[in-house]
Design brief:
By secondary structure, the chain is α/β, with parallel strands linked by helices. The chain has 2 domains: about 60 residues, 2,3-Dihydroxybiphenyl 1,2-Dioxygenase, domain 1 (Roll), CATH 3.10.180; about 80 residues, 2,3-Dihydroxybiphenyl 1,2-Dioxygenase, domain 1 (Roll). It is about 20% helix and about 30% strand. The protein has 3 helices and 9 strands, in the order βαββαβαβββββ. The strands form 3 sheets. Strands 4-7-6-5 form a 4-stranded mixed beta sheet, with helices on one face. Strands 1-3-2 form a 3-stranded mixed beta sheet. The protein has a two-stranded antiparallel ribbon with strand order 8-9. The longest helix is centred in the middle third of the chain and has 13 residues.
């Protein structure tokens, strides 16, 4: 198996509400999608929103078996601490649930956490040891 992720799918309770959050609050743009699922092109990775019950059914599970803390977070890395703060100001202004306000991190960066309307956790981080390329891709090597 190649070392990459192609698609991240989140199960959501209310698809229109979730799409409104990702478009209206985060400023993302949905792509043309089949009925019942919404796709976002994230520069090489596809991000999808799909109703909980349908995603669980596709996995052969029931949606009521999902615990509140799931042991993961999605992350969006940015180029500066100021950019982290600007994103959190936008999130706060739109009523997003802030789990941890941005702060200096033990590993040398700056980050905070929020959750979307379905409780999926996101980290917004500035990692001074990585480079965010012009096209938004992350390089784990710092440009000198």
């Amino acid at each position: 198996m190649e070392q990459r992720i192609s698609l991240v799918t989140l199960g959501v309770a209310d698809l229109p509400r979730a799409v409104a959050f990702y478009e209206g609050v985060l400023g993302w743009k949905a792509e043309s999608s089949p009925p019942g699922v919404v796709f976002f092109d994230l520069s090489g990775v596809v991000f999808a929103l799909w109703p909980h019950d349908e995603l669980a059914k596709d996995m052969g599970l029931t949606a009521d078996r999902v615990p509140a803390y799931r042991g993961y977070s999605l992350a969006h890395n940015v180029r500066s601490e100021a950019e982290v703060d600007a994103i959190f100001a936008r999130l706060k202004n739109h009523g997003a649930t802030i789990l941890k306000k941005p702060q200096k991190a033990f590993w040398g960066g700056y980050s905070g956490y929020f959750s979307d309307p379905d409780g999926h956790t996101w980290e917004i981080a500035h990692n001074p040891f990585w480079t965010i390329k012009e096209d938004g891709r992350v390089s784990m090597k710092k440009d000198r």
